[in-house]
Specification:
heterodimer; A: alpha/beta; Ubiquitin-like (UB roll); FAD/NAD(P)-binding domain; 4 domains; five-stranded mixed sheet; five-stranded parallel sheet; 14 helices; globular; B: alpha+beta; D-Amino Acid Oxidase, Chain A, domain 2; 2 domains; eight-stranded mixed sheet; 10 helices; 20 strands; disordered N terminus; binds flavin-adenine dinucleotide; binds FE2/S2 (inorganic) cluster
Chain lengths: 557, 386
């Protein structure tokens, strides 16, 4: 299939994302910001809003979420050129909320990742009527994302495992709707969503939130350059379209996913120059953790060992106790510098950042679910009981959006929450269901033990945190630097909200997902103020940008 | 964003205290401090917030309101002369502070979708001209010359050249810096629960202790109601929670403040490129009545109406919504000394209070300083509500 980018014809694989097509042709810069900076794919999952392009005259489309399913005309996005008023919908009569269709399933599941799918399956098995909404173009979430591009290598084991789960869910009579973005949650229990045809509302009896997580930012000089992307973004290019982010790749971060990515990219033919891990090397001091991990998830440990040996065989350097400190453009590519136990520079096409995750808890917070602050991980944790029940009646939460636990924990917690939500509806559980529930409870405990040991092993030395320079960007969307924030503090601003007003930090399209946590950390350092559950920007509706055209159009009409 | 660190130290005894740090309180405090007064602002929430404004500079009369309340038209007309002066004063203040408020007086359009609506606007424009406003009627062809962004349903509009917009974020930031520079003490997250006389001074019982002051200015928006009670005043102020929407930025293409002859809407594009959509759609008041929450039906109804009038908005995405509490006074503002209570003053601006804010504050500050204000404040006197 052929698409056109800035007048140039490009070969695309049907079904892949537009970001995958452009990346495959070496195009990394997709737009120019108001200040003249270049931007491209960063998060790869629709969160950062940096990959905006114009598609067939429609401005501000996220290339990472646009599926290439037809020949399309794509243009780079400027700072936002004035939209054209043309099109069939120009100036359609205004509507009111009464015209928006309302669906009333017994159970609504938001998110079709491992957690949401497992929850839907369990609730359905117990007899509930279940609707699953996911903004991705296919179910699977992060761990089980399926290959969407046609004509590429056969699915691997992880794809297949996901496929089985998805097929089980579809076969059980659950309604799964992809391309459906839930942009608002309102009390007592109402959800506002859009799908390609327009808007709809959902008023379920029970709501299960399984919206996952997104990669944290790593604000160092150059982290906004095209070619610097998250580990998740690079992995999505590979797992959904078998496209490499670039030829020469540096991976830097903290945690095991970086190794997994290295292995996948090596298999795809990339030259991964190094994996730079912030945690110290695993030594004898870690026997306790290794024993705990082996006892709870031997297969995952085996995977880890395999990743390490594959990397070594492929000549990927494994550097521990060091972090990325800057990226600068360099002869058509990037020069990335690391510091810590080892100081070095690498000339590459692409730098992948995998410094942990932030939970996508916006819907839960909009509903008023109680959260606690985890000082070690510097993020909010949803308060819930062992079955996923939150502080708000009828709202259940599980998986990565509550606290980071990985796919296995998500799946087991999903099963528990699905059954519990069905119970709350008055459904009776069969003997088989009760057995599955007990199994899931045991699995949750086991995988949590594994995760705890894993993260003790991967604990990074806090002194490695990079002190950003004044011209380092803190807020990607509004292009606000650390220096500007410092200046606002010097002017007498004391609170995050004043800094927001002074600098516009946090007011952009990504809704402060990256700069919010960065600002909190910075303020804590600067003012000695401790963070708590009230820190951070309060979630604002819409939790994801929503087009006025979609808002004005009742779905199905 | 929630933060306890805006509070700052609480003054114990001070010459002048201003209760409320909205546009009124901020400006009154600044003007007084510039004249050498010792001034503190005490605000229950976050002072200098931007929730109660959207940056429209309103001048022309609201035809929708006139049609719904014909009996109140004379009161509207009696205060009308203040609006163009208030816009002018915003420019003056911007010069005075040497700041950039993103001010633009590019005119405001009130669009009509029917002959009948346009005829009503024509009569309104004629009245406004006689009261000194620069208003005229444009037909569709004329509109196409200056506002090609309007949708096909629009048949004509009234153009009021005095209207415009500003970037409230920029303006409030500049004002906040100014009041700090001239020495105003700003205390947030401290509510004033009761005001009483204590000898020759005022005693304010606050959530963080007692404050005494020789001069008291109440600029507390909806909170003014209870604060003015001890002075024997029953103010007709209400708490009106309002909803606003804002799109992602795009190149400037909407040049005017756009309103509708018969529907609730304002649309304008800020200098930053964001399109702000509002116009009086309801939000929800929290049970404690101290903050407002956005309302789903307003997101849909308000933005849908916006794309009907300016179709290109249909292609933009809403990135944020917010809500604030407006303070309708059922007529003109409430400005000036409280008779029978020496050294106590009220500062509540009335309809389109952000537009009127700085000028109203100047007038109140002048009376506090014992000067003759540039406008006759009799129609705004708090004594109306004794
Ligand atoms: C980018 C990324 C890459 C990862 N890669 C790996 C890996 O390679 N190996 C590994 O072991 N673990 C990986 N993880 C971790 C692992 O995938 C997760 O722990 C696991 O997928 C969590 O499952 P979940 O169901 O909680 O959430 P997810 O799998 O993240 O699923 C959440 C789903 O919710 C949907 N969603 C979110 N918000 C909305 C909304 N407002 N409206 C509608 N839908 C919404 C998303 O589209 C997504 O499909 C990755 C995580 C991320 C974030
Ligand atoms: C969403 C919205 C959008 C608007 N948009 C526009 C516009 O575009 N153009 C325009 O001209 N007008 C607009 N208005 C109207 C205008 O903003 C208001 O009339 C004006 O801002 C009022 O300013 P104020 O200083 O009198 O009151 P407020 O801004 O309401 O400030 C009052 C302050 O007093 C404090 N307070 C209250 N009680 C107490 C107490 N007991 N103790 C201590 N502190 C107290 C409050 O915390 C508050 O900060 C809008 C209003 C709203 C709600
Ligand atoms: S890369 Fe597309 S939204 Fe982040």
């Amino acid at each position: 299939m052929k698409i056109e980018f800035e007048g140039e014809a490009l070969e695309a694989r049907p079904g892949e994302s537009l970001a995958a097509t452009l990346t495959a042709h070496g195009i990394r810069s997709f737009r120019t910001t108001e200040r003249g900076a270049e931007r491209g794919v960063f998060c790869g999952m629709g969160v950062c809003q940096d990959c905006l392009v114009e598609v067939d005259g429609k401005p501000n489309q996220r290339a990472c979420t646009v599926k290439v399913d037809r020949p399309m005309k794509v243009r780079r996005e400027g700072s936002g050129r004035a939209p054209a008023a043309s099109g069939p919908a120009a100036g359609r009569p205004p509507i009111t909320i009464e015209e928006i269709p309302v669906e009333r399933p017994q159970v609504l599941v938001v998110g079709a990742g491992p957690g949401g799918l497992a929850a839907a399956y369990a609730a359905r098995l117990a007899g509930a009527e279940v609707l699953v909404l996911d903004e991705g173009s296919a179910p699977g979430g992060q761990y089980f994302k399926q290959c969407s591009a046609a004509g590429v290598a056969p699915p691997d084991a992880q794809h297949q495992e996901g496929r089985r789960l998805i097929d089980d869910v579809l076969g059980s009579g659950v309604t799964v709707r992809s391309n459906a973005s839930v942009w608002g949650a309102f009390r007592p229990l109402e959800f506002a969503a859009t799908k390609p045809g327009g808007s709809f509302l959902v008023q379920p009896e029970q709501a299960i939130i399984a919206t996952g997580a997104f990669d944290r930012g790593w604000p160092v000089p150059g982290w906004t350059l095209p070619g610097v992307m998250t580990t998740g973004a690079a992995q999505t290019l590979w797992r959904t379209a078998r496209r490499l982010p670039g030829k020469r790749v540096l991976i830097a971060g903290n945690g095991p996913l970086n190794l997994q990515l290295a292995v996948e990219l090596v298999a795809g033919g990339a030259d991964v120059v190094a994996v730079v891990e912030a945690a110290p090397a695993v030594g004898v001091r870690r026997v306790r953790e290794i024993a705990a991990m082996l006892a709870n998830a031997p297969r995952l440990v085996a995977d880890g060992v395999r990743y390490l040996s594959t990397c070594r065989r492929a000549g990927v350097r494994l550097i521990n106790g060091s972090v990325l400190t800057s990226v600068v453009p360099h002869s058509g590519g990037l020069r990335a510098t690391i510091a810590g136990r080892e100081t070095a520079s690498f000339d590459v096409d692409v730098v992948c950042l995998g410094y942990g995750f932030h939970p996508s808890n916006e819907l839960l917070r909009a509903l008023g679910c109680e959260h606690a602050f985890d000082p070690e991980q510097r993020r909010l944790v949803t308060v819930r009981d062992t079955r996923g029940k939150t502080s708000v009646d009828g709202v259940w939460a599980l998986g990565d959006c509550t606290t980071l636990g990985g796919a296995r924990v998500g799946q087991a917690e999903g099963t528990l929450a699905g059954f519990a939500a069905a119970r709350a509806l008055g459904c009776a559980l069969s003997a088989e269901a009760v057995r599955l529930e007990a199994q899931a409870a045991a699995d949750t405990a086991r995988h949590r033990r594994f995760q705890r040991a894993l993260w003790r092993m991967y604990r990074m030395d806090e002194s490695l945190r990079v002190r950003p320079t004044g011209d380092t960007v803190m807020c990607r969307c509004e292009e606000v630097t650390y220096g500007q924030v410092e200046a606002a503090l010097a002017e007498g601003a004391t609170s995050p909200s004043e800094i927001k007003q002074e600098t516009r930090l946090g007011m952009g399209r990504c809704q402060a997902r990256y700069c919010g946590p960065a600002l909190e950390t910075f303020l804590a350092e600067q003012t000695g103020r401790s963070q708590d559950e009230t820190s951070g920007f309060a979630p604002r509706v819409p939790v994801k940008p929503v087009s006025v055209g979609d808002l004005s159009n009742p779905a199905g009409a | 964003m929630h933060s306890p660190t805006t509070s700052g130290p609480l003054p114990r005894d001070i010459q002048t205290v201003v209760v409320g740090g909205g546009i009124l309180g901020l400006c009154v405090a600044g003007f007084l401090a510039e004249e050498g007064r010792e001034v503190a602002i005490i605000d229950a929430g976050r002072p200098e917030g931007t929730t109660t404004n959207a940056g429209s500079l309103h001048v022309q009369m609201q035809s929708r309101f006139m049609r719904m309340h014909p009996d109140q038209v004379p009161a509207l007309e009696s205060g009308l002369h203040l609006y163009p002066k208030a816009v002018e004063f915003w420019f003056e203040l911007q010069r005075h502070l040497d700041a950039d408020f993103g001010l633009k007086a590019s005119g405001g359009l009130m669009v009509a979708e029917s002959r009948e609506q346009l005829d009503f606007l024509a009569k309104k424009a004629e009245r406004e001209r006689s009261l000194g406003l620069d208003s005229k009627i444009l037909d569709r062809d004329e509109l196409d010359q200056i506002a090609p962004y309007l949708g096909p349903a629009v048949v004509g509009a009234e153009l009021c050249a005095d209207e415009g917009r500003l970037d409230a974020l920029k303006a409030n930031t500049a004002l906040r810096r100014w009041v700090r520079r001239v020495g105003v003490m700003v205390t947030g997250e401290t509510s004033v629960d009761r005001v009483s006389r204590d000898g020759g001074r005022f005693k304010l019982d606050t959530s963080r202790g007692t404050v005494r002051a020789a001069t008291l200015v109440i600029a507390a928006g909806p909170g003014s109601l209870t604060l003015a009670e001890p002075f024997g005043l029953t103010l007709p102020v209400e708490s009106e929670p309002l909803h606003m929407n804002i799109t992602e930025p795009t190149d400037l293409f909407i040049g005017h403040l756009v309103q509708h002859a018969d529907r609730m809407i304002t649309v304008k594009q800020l200098s930053s490129g964001h399109v702000v959509i509002g116009g009086g759609w309801p939000a929800d008041l929290s049970p404690s009545e101290d903050y407002a929450a956005v309302r789903l039906s307003s997101i849909i109804g308000n933005t849908s109406l916006a794309q009907h009038i300016v179709p290109a908005i249909g292609r933009l995405r809403i990135i944020r919504t917010w809500a604030g509490i407006n303070t309708p006074t059922g007529g003109p503002g409430i400005l000036g000394p409280i008779h029978g209570a020496p050294n106590a003053f009220l500062a509540i601006p009335g309809e389109a209070g952000y537009t009127l804010g700085p000028l109203s504050a100047r007038l109140v500050a002048d009376t506090v300083l014992g000067r003759r204000p540039t406008e006759d404040l009799a129609p705004f006197s708090p004594s109306r509500f004794r």
